[in-house]
Amino acid sequence: MPAQKKPLFKESPTQVRATKADKTTEIAMQMAEKDARDRQTKTEKLRALRLEREAAEAAEKAAAPAPKKKTPAKKKVVVKEPA
């Protein structure tokens, strides 16, 4: 009987199996990253809309004539004659 040879190196699985905790952590991180991307996108969109509105208001204000300042009416002085 020939002697069986042991392999020189141990065979390793092609893919490392993740534990349930590792999978949960990965999914939670993906969700947090997605939320951060969504928040950043929303912030950029709102900032662009605000800047556009402010520019429109500034243009409208510049186009409108300045209102004239009203001077207070002079009071009539009534002189009472002694009776």
Note the main attributes of this structure.
single chain; 83 residues; mainly alpha; 1 helix; rod-shaped
Descriptive notes:
With about 80 residues, the chain is mainly α. It is built from one helix and no strands.
Short description:
The chain has 83 residues and is mostly helical. The protein has 1 helix and no strands.
Number of helices: 1
Shape annotation = rod-shaped
Order of helices and strands: H
How much of the sequence lies in strands comes to: under 5%
Low-confidence runs = none
- Computed structural class: mainly alpha
- Seen as an oligomer or otherwise, the chain set is single chain
Alpha carbon gyration radius: 40 Å
Q: Describe the biggest sheet? A: none
Number of beta-strand segments: 0
Ends distance: 153 Å
Fraction of residues in helix = 40-55%
Arithmetic mean of pLDDT: 83
Protein topology:
Blueprint: H1 20-63
